[in-house]
Structure formats: structure tokens, C-alpha cells
Write a structure and sequence with these properties.
Elements: H1 2-13, H2 27-41, E1 49-54, E2 57-61, E3 76-78, E4 82-87, E5 96-101, E6 113-118, E7 121-125, E8 133-137, E9 141-144, E10 153-157, E11 162-168, E12 174-178, E13 185-189, E14 193-195, E15 217-222, E16 236-240, E17 248-252, E18 255-267, E19 270-284, E20 287-292, E21 295-300, E22 315-317, H3 320-323, H4 343-353, H5 363-369, E23 372-376, E24 380-383, E25 392-396, E26 404-409, E27 415-419, E28 424-426, E29 430-434
Parallel strand pairs: 15-17
Antiparallel strand pairs: 1-3, 1-5, 2-4, 4-7, 5-6, 6-16, 7-15, 8-11, 8-14, 9-10, 11-12, 12-13, 16-18, 17-18, 18-19, 19-20, 19-21, 21-22, 23-29, 24-25, 26-27, 27-28
């Protein structure tokens, strides 16, 4: 039996995309192994951390403290301490580094933006290290819009509740804090608080002092046309946001980018941003350029590596051959490359994206027009298949409207609905109003394209293995 299980595991180890088996040498296998090692070394990377994945990863720190080391695979450091991260330079080994950054996501949402740098990459943090302390309320604490007792109250906090302060007024009477659950800043009086550190350690700021989390503003330089072999990827940076609906804002090489997407970036004489899924908006001289999945934008850079002033940019079909071999299994959400869009389709999608928002209808009119409405009773997990042994691919908030297209029952007798976006939720989590038709029943269902198998236990982590799945 043991011999049989070892043989099964060996069989699944050989199931890899065909592109990795076309070259005669071992170059594609080395790259694939490097990405697998990086994924293992940086497993469960937490928010606001940088990780040494594989090969050679070096860091320049913002402080000379010996508390931070990044010298071996699996080493992790706070991104706030990193001035620059250099990936690559190891002989005969593919280098990989990973970061989880918050950007402008609310800290309490426990979500972050994933950055995977591979090959020859240097990414420099343009946000100086900002001292922070924890503030606890000793009475009712009002977070105000300005450092004044007469300013509007943005949030009220109770006794012993805590917030994070990242600045102070020159007289030390007010602290700038992050409003819990948001990306907004407010002010609290020092008269009703205690702190974990000295207030004097904070930077002196005022209402107009900007605040950015680490690596929200950065510069990037990558190798170009440097693939180790035909089936290996070129150097680059993969960025993946938590979802493809709510954009996250980053500034890279002087360009403000709004991402609800997975994108691939290369930066040499130009910066090329290819959108693999979701969409991106690029600020260009006060205007926005919309880049959908299947398209790219080429951004001219000057001699300093920053965007050229007054440069012209537009979205165009991406080059599929340039993206083959990308490590698309390493980000939190796996994806498959879509075919390049035509220029006509890109222009049409942009026109639709920027079309004026229709005037909302009154609720009673909406109710009349919609005879059946199904909404979530509570916050739920969106599963990759009809069962809790599949992986969670997203979360959906209470009150969100859903459209089930298929119903099936799992081995425990629980009823599952497949939604129009292909994810699955338990039917009992959905509340229906109006005249709703039954959801079509089926004994068969579409299953995730990808699965994982542990070579130690021979157990899968995304439901049973189905015919046609990549493993």
C-alpha cells in the first residue's frame, strides 16, 4: 500500500502545464521548483511583511537596528522597516521575494495586497518609516476631524478601546490616529488616553500632512527580455489585490494606479503593466486610462526611472507570448490567462466603464421591477465547490444580492447553490423575497480547475480530484 501511495504522489508531481515540458534542458523545472520553494517558505505570510522566498533576496533597511535579518529562505521582516528589496543575482538559481502590503486597505479588514517579485527585480519603498504607538481610552474618546474640541466627531470610542497613533501636533495636545475599520485619519485629545510609548516619539504633523502605509509609494526596476529559457518567465512583479471589485491605490515610478486586479509589471526603459484579471485605472495628466483583463499599458519613463511628464498612454492588447510561464499558482487566488482583447473591445469596455452612472430608482420602483430578490442573511464564505472541503475563494458581506444558477446537495445533506460568478454558498445563508422560481437541480456541478495534493499525505486540499483538473 505504501508503495502504491508513493507512486500516486509521484504521478501527480509530474502533472504540470505543458509549457514546462517543451524544453530539453532542466531550466523550466528549476524555475518551477524555485517558485514552489518560495511558496512553501513564505506560506501564511502575514500582512505588512516581506519574505525571502528563494535564490538571493537582500534588503536595505530604514534603520540600522539588528532586529531585522533577511538572509535565508523563510526569513520575514516588517515592510515598514524595509527601504529597498533586491531580488536576483544568485548563480544558477531563480530568485523570488514576496511582500504583503496594506496600501490603502483598512487595517482591520485583515486583507492585503500580494506582491511576488521574481528574476531580477528591485523595488524601493518611498514611504519613510513612521513611528506609531497604541493609544487606549481612559474615558469616552472622541475621534475628531481636526485637532480641535469644536471639530466634527467622526467616531466615538469606549473605555479601554484602542487605536493606533502615527503623529502629533507640535504642542503635544492632539494625536493623529487611524480610525478603526477605515482608511481615514482623525484626531484625539491626549487628555483622556494612555499610550504604550512616548508621545514624543511621534512625528509632528498637521491636518495637511499626508500619510501612506509602507510601499504604497514605490519605485520598480526589473530585468527585461531575460528569460532563462523559452518556457521560463521573464523577470517581473506580480501584484494581486484581494478582489476584482474594489480598487486599491498604489503609486509606482510616479504613476498613480488603481487596481482591482492581478497584474504583471516590468520596468526598464518603459513600464509595461499587463492586466491578467480584473481591471486597472492609470492616472494620466488628470485623466484616467482604463485597462481591462487581456490588455496592457506601456508607460514611458524618463532617465530617472519615473513617468515622463506629459507622456501619452493608452490601453492596447497584451502580448500573450510575453506572459507565458508566469507563476500564476503562487498568488492567493489562482487564475488562467485570458486571450488578448481586440483594440475595439478595449475601447468599448473603456467607454462602458466611464459611462455616467444612471440615476438610482426609488426602492419601491426597484421592488416592483424585481419580483424575486435573493440576499445573504449574514457574512458568508464563497467556496470553490459545493462543500466545506473546498477552498474559500472570497467572502461576501451580509445583504449582498446573489443570483443562484444551480442547486446540489453534499454528502452531509446540506444544500448548496452555485452563484452566477461560479462560486458556491450554502442555500440556508440566502434569504429570498418576492416570487422566486426554484433553483435548477443537478447531480453534477462544475468544479475548480486547480487542486493541490500534499506529497507527504497524498491528501487534496480543494475537494476530490476531478478529471481535467490541474494538480
Amino acid at each position: 500500500m505504501k508503495t502504491f501511495l508513493m507512486a500516486v504522489c509521484a504521478f501527480f508531481l509530474l502533472i504540470t502545464p505543458a509549457a514546462y515540458a517543451q524544453d530539453g534542458d532542466d531550466c523550466p523545472a528549476k524555475v518551477l521548483l524555485a517558485m514552489a520553494r518560495a511558496g512553501s517558505a513564505c506560506q501564511k505570510l502575514e500582512a505588512d511583511q516581506a519574505c525571502f522566498g528563494n535564490g538571493l533576496v537582500t534588503a536595505t533597511f530604514q534603520t540600522s537596528s539588528s532586529d531585522f535579518t533577511l538572509g535565508a529562505a523563510g526569513d520575514r521582516v516588517p515592510v515598514s522597516a524595509v527601504q529597498a528589496l533586491q531580488i536576483g543575482g544568485a548563480a544558477d538559481e531563480w530568485s523570488v521575494g514576496l511582500l504583503q502590503i496594506r496600501a490603502d486597505l483598512p487595517a482591520m479588514e485583515q486583507r492585503s495586497v500580494t506582491l511576488i517579485a521574481f528574476g531580477q527585480v528591485e523595488i524601493e519603498n518611498q514611504v519613510p518609516m513612521i513611528p506609531e504607538i497604541t493609544v487606549s481610552a481612559t474615558a469616552v474618546l472622541y475621534i475628531r476631524a481636526e485637532p480641535s474640541d469644536s471639530a466634527d466627531i467622526l467616531k466615538e470610542m469606549g473605555l479601554r478601546e484602542t487605536v493606533t497613533a502615527n503623529g502629533r501636533t507640535a504642542d503635544g495636545q492632539w494625536l493623529r490616529v487611524m480610525i478603526p475599520g477605515t482608511t481615514e485619519l482623525g484626531w484625539v485629545s491626549t487628555g483622556v488616553i494612555t499610550t504604550t510609548g512616548s508621545i514624543t516619539a511621534l512625528n509632528v504633523v498637521d491636518e495637511n500632512t499626508p500619510y501612506s502605509p509602507p510601499f504604497q509609494v514605490s519605485t520598480l526596476q526589473t530585468g527585461v527580455d531575460d528569460a532563462l529559457c523559452e518556457s521560463a518567465p521573464e523577470s517581473g512583479l506580480l501584484i494581486q489585490t484581494p478582489n476584482t471589485d474594489n480598487p486599491v491605490t498604489l503609486a509606482i515610478n510616479g504613476v498613480w494606479i488603481h487596481l482591482a486586479a492581478t497584474v504583471h509589471l516590468q520596468a526598464g526603459e518603459t513600464m509595461v503593466l499587463s492586466v491578467l484579471d480584473g481591471y486597472a485605472e492609470i492616472e494620466n495628466g488628470g485623466a484616467m486610462v482604463y485597462v481591462p483583463a487581456g490588455a496592457r499599458i506601456v508607460i514611458p519613463l524618463d532617465s530617472t526611472g519615473l513617468v515622463s511628464t506629459g507622456s501619452s498612454m493608452s490601453a492596447e492588447p497584451y502580448v500573450l507570448a510575453d506572459l507565458q510561464g508566469l507563476p500564476l499558482n503562487n498568488p492567493p487566488y489562482r487564475l488562467v490567462l485570458v486571450e488578448p482583447l481586440s483594440q475595439e473591445m478595449i475601447d468599448a469596455l473603456a467607454a462602458e466603464h466611464f459611462a455616467p452612472t444612471p440615476t438610482p430608482l426609488p426602492p419601491e420602483v426597484i421592488e416592483q421591477q424585481q419580483s424575486c430578490v435573493r440576499k445573504l442573511r449574514e457574512d458568508v464564505s464563497l467556496w470553490a465547490g459545493p462543500g466545506t472541503y473546498y477552498e474559500v475563494v472570497n467572502t461576501l458581506p451580509a445583504g449582498q444580492r446573489v443570483r443562484p444558477v444551480l442547486e446540489t446537495t453534499d454528502a452531509d445533506g446540506l444544500v448548496w447553490w452555485q452563484l452566477s460568478n461560479s462560486g458556491w454558498v450554502q442555500a440556508r445563508s440566502v434569504e429570498a423575497t418576492g416570487d422566486c422560481s426554484p433553483v435548477p437541480l443537478s447531480d453534477t456541478a462544475s468544479y475548480p480547475e486547480y487542486n493541490h495534493m500534499s506529497l507527504e499525505t497524498c491528501m487534496t486540499t480543494n475537494g476530490p480530484i476531478r478529471p481535467g483538473q490541474w494538480v
